[in-house]
TrEMBL record, chain B:
<feature type="transmembrane region" description="Helical">
    <location>
        <begin position="60"/>
        <end position="83"/>
    </location>
</feature>
<keyword id="KW-0472">Membrane</keyword>
<keyword id="KW-1278">Translocase</keyword>
<comment type="subunit">
    <text>NDH-1 is composed of 14 different subunits. Subunits NuoA, H, J, K, L, M, N constitute the membrane sector of the complex.</text>
</comment>
<keyword id="KW-0874">Quinone</keyword>
<keyword id="KW-1133">Transmembrane helix</keyword>
<keyword id="KW-1003">Cell membrane</keyword>
<keyword id="KW-0520">NAD</keyword>
<dbReference type="GO" id="GO:0050136">
    <property type="term" value="F:NADH dehydrogenase (quinone) (non-electrogenic) activity"/>
</dbReference>
<keyword id="KW-0812">Transmembrane</keyword>
<dbReference type="Pfam" id="PF00420">
    <property type="entry name" value="Oxidored_q2"/>
</dbReference>
<protein>
    <recommendedName>
        <fullName>NADH-quinone oxidoreductase subunit K</fullName>
        <ecNumber>7.1.1.-</ecNumber>
    </recommendedName>
</protein>
<feature type="transmembrane region" description="Helical">
    <location>
        <begin position="28"/>
        <end position="48"/>
    </location>
</feature>
<keyword id="KW-0813">Transport</keyword>
<comment type="similarity">
    <text>Belongs to the complex I subunit 4L family.</text>
</comment>
<feature type="transmembrane region" description="Helical">
    <location>
        <begin position="6"/>
        <end position="23"/>
    </location>
</feature>
<dbReference type="InterPro" id="IPR039428">
    <property type="entry name" value="NUOK/Mnh_C1-like"/>
</dbReference>
Amino acid sequence: MENLIALLVAAPLLGAAVLLCGGRRLDRAGHWLGTLLAAASFGIGAALFADMLGRGADDRTMRQHLYSWIPVEGFQADIAFQLDQLSMTFVLLISGVGTLIHVYSIGYMEHDERRRRFFGYLNLFLAAMLLLVLADNYLLLYVGWEGVGLASYLLIGFWQHKPSAATAAKKAFLVNRVGDMGLSIAIMLMFTTFGTFAFRPVLASAGETSEGMLTAIGLMLLLAACGKSAQVPLQSWLGDAMEGPTPVSALIHAATMVTAGVYLIVRSGAIFNGAPDAQLVTAIVGAVTLLFGAVVGCAKDDIKKALAGSTMSQIGYMVLAAGLGPIGYVFAIMHLVTHGFFKAGLFLGAGSVMHGMNDEVDMRKYGGLRRYMPVTFVTFGLGYLAIIGFPGLSGFFSKDRIIEAAFAKGGTEGWILGSVALLGAAITAFYMTRVMLMTFFGEKRWQPAPDADAAADVEPSAGHRPGEMPHPHESPKSMTVPMIVLAFGSVFAGGFFAIGDRFLNWLEPVTGYEHGHPPVSALTVTLATMAVLAVGVAIAWAMYGRRPVPVTAPRGSLLTRAARRDLLQDDFNHVVLVRGGEHLTRSLVYVDHSLVDGVVNGTAASVGGLSGRLRKLQNGYARSYAVSMFGGTAILIAATLLMRAV
Amino acid sequence: MNPVNYLYLAALLFTIGAAGVLIRRNTIVLFMCVELMLNACNLAFVAFSRMHGNLDGQIIAFFTMVVAAAEVVVGLAIIVSLFRTRHSASVDDASLMKL
């Protein structure tokens, strides 16, 4: 069975190569090929999963050594895979959700003439993401890490004729670069400390290393995770990344790629366990981000950007849980999986709404869609109930466990982190209810499609004429079926994982687990979560359900206005980083001009001047040459005589 | 007679030749001054040969004469062609590599 692991990566990679190099003759069947290969990857994953379930808990790790990539004395880089319970979870999530989104894209991208290329990029993403989670060393993980970054860049900027999409892609790439630098430094530190970067030796000997070094490695890994998972302070790219097609937002910027940071932290658990400071910083980053994303999500009128804020916030929960150490690792991954289901479902629902509404994204121009798009309404509604943590649905089990674990950290930190997580749950309930009410309930606030000037700015797949009123309709089967499947996941996955501690028992051999000592009982936490949930929903109902929603956004409070501008993150980046960078480069240019160029030009000028004078000696008069020869000979003879005399 | 006096004569002839080369402009005179310097050297060689009782200097003097004869052939040809192209026997007129 081990030999099948490489096929998991190879299938989508083959698809990407064929689709991207195949040319126009594949236009008609390309999307089927891409979907088939994604499904093949899922099939192989399921077969391996079945095989893994048949083994004992300690015997489940499978390995495959493909070949030595860089065999140098003292530096061994292998193309080798490791498939344990943690990787298996990711493989199933990535290839499963990935396949569903391939199917969805067949319908969603139907009118796009570059659909073949789109599927090529999606396959490239799947291959890179699977490589990331299957690698058995940090260097190969880094290859996958960069691969998903590339795929993300290509897909965000897929509609590159829109300047906003091209800019968003560049922004995502640049911000991710900062995080990638953290990962590369962490790998170098590992190599100097442990002499290797394979998971097994590094994690096994992490306990014998000094705490300072572990903290340094941990913080660098956290920086990497911040970049990829859009955590404060590297969160600014995720909102703009919504410029990409909606299936991309669902797959890459909600369900899989942005969770790579959580995977990295949980995978490197042994390093973080030895560095309490790094753990605390991780938990704080998670807590800050979960509030940040939630506040941003409350203010956005663009449905995809509201969901992007929510994604940021939910990943904040996962990072917070991962920062709690062995108390939280399992729950971070559990929330990651359930979040993969319901957030992908929500994004696909949003895409379906946009599909029916002439690609309008402003929720203030939706309203009353539940009668026109029943399937979208029900699946989106189930995703909504799951994400706010409605009892019995997925989010309830996974988020509740994280809040409980945050309290269980103990001490003042535990209380603060736990309270922040509770507050986040309330805000989550508020903004998701807001999205739900503004989109599907209330009155129709539909507006005619934008006029010709603005129409050039919307997606080419729109296929609508300017000035036409939208005719909301249910999306085709290829789009609704994935939404229904994901809705099933949103409803049942959490309960399936949590009841009988199935997920805990499954992952514990890899990540370890300790229960901690919660200062309050689990029941109290659950009841408190239910209470804040009800409060959040009630406030949202009072603000957006009872009163009609204005089509143009009111001015709003200072906080609302700041949150609409993503809490001034871009302004901050602009003032501090962009301006600072400009000043730095300007002063460097000045130094270059005055000092470096001065030295170089000065040398050249003095050589030139000297040659100009020497040139005058070359005057063509034979007698002046004779004088120099005569003078030179005289000097030589005089010198010789002088030397002999001395 | 003291052979050193020949050396003094050789030095005197060489100086006259060198001064002529440096001062005069006429190519023919220049050429004759060069010959004068060569013959001054020959005189010095022969004088030294006599002083040291060694025939090497005299042999070299013969060589010098042969080389000088060859030089006269080439040199005069150059002078004649210079005069033909520039209608002047002054070395200073031939200061450029073009006409």
